[in-house]
Design goal:
Length: 77
């Protein structure tokens, strides 16, 4: 399903996209969709690099006391 939307572009970008679409033999809309996909892909990669997956935390505290949860009351008396 396609959703129709309206986007305002500077005139120079509009002209460049029209010329590119004509030279590549594709329609204007497909170039815009392709560009949007690329932006989303780049942003998602950047976001995933900035967040630490939970798997990276496994074993992070392997040198702490193993029975801490059993003795937490003794520690905080």
């Amino acid at each position: 399903m396609m959703i129709r939307t309206q986007v305002y572009l500077p005139e120079d970008l509009h002209i460049q996209l029209k010329l590119l679409a004509k030279s590549k033999g594709v329609n204007y809309s497909s170039l815009i969709r392709e560009g949007v996909k690329e932006v989303i892909k780049k942003k998602q990669k950047r976001t995933s690099k900035n967040t630490m997956p939970l798997a990276n935390l496994v074993g992070a505290l392997k040198y702490g006391p193993g029975d801490l949860s059993n003795h937490v009351d003794d520690i905080y008396k």
